[in-house]
Amino acid sequence: MEEGQYDAVRAIRFVEKILFENSNKLYDLRLSLPEIGEQTKYSSSKELSWSSIGMSGRFPHDCEYVIVQWVTYMGEIRARVLPVRQFKKLVSSGGSKRFGISRGNTGTLQNDTTTSVVNTTGQVFVEPQLSTLRPNGIQRHDNKNAYFSVMSRWTDDDGVPIEVCLL
Which SS3 state, helix, strand or coil, does residue 46 take? Predict the structure, then answer.
């Protein structure tokens, strides 16, 4: 390959395809690389609301689990995997729309120990941000998306986003 042979878009697509195909083969994923600009049917945040994700039946029927993810102060992604039925209950109009985790989890190091400055007393609340709900890419044997992922933010007791964790 020589300098100037590819423009930026073609070069990015070239590298993307190499990385995707290597992973696909290495992990026997049997996935196909979407075309540039191709969107999934779940990518529109207009479709996603508390009622549409709740018991209205608009939630993807092939989903079995939702991975609720959040980023710690250490830049790590932590997660809780919920069966879709429990997730629907959580985000439905009658649900709490969030769950609590120990405040000690906010400063946990990579080896699951805490530093001396972490206050381990109390809790913060993890609140899923439904506009980020996406198919995870983990598929069942029938090529249906078994897992969906959603990013979350931390809130305090009153539901106010924690200042250092605004989404």
Answer: helix
Task: Give the Å distances, CA to CA, from 138 to 30, 52, 133, 146.
Answer: 11, 23, 14, 6
Residues sharing a CB contact under 8 Å with residue 74, sequence separation 6 or more, in sequence order: 107, 108, 109, 110
Contact 78, 98 (CB under 8 A): no
Give per-residue pLDDT as tens, 3-44. Answer: 777 787 788 788 888 888 888 787 777 778 776 554 444 333
Determine the Cα–Cα distance for residues 87 and 161; give it in Å rounded to an integer: 20
Question: Residue type for 82, please?
Answer: L
Closest CA to 145 of 77, 43, 2: 43
Size of the chain in residues: 167
Q: Which residue, 71, 74, 75, is CA-closest to 129? A: 71
C-alpha dihedral (95, 64, 47, 52), degrees to nearest 10: -30
CATH pick for 46-165 out of 3.10.20.70, 3.10.129.10, 3.40.50.720, 3.40.50.300? 3.10.20.70
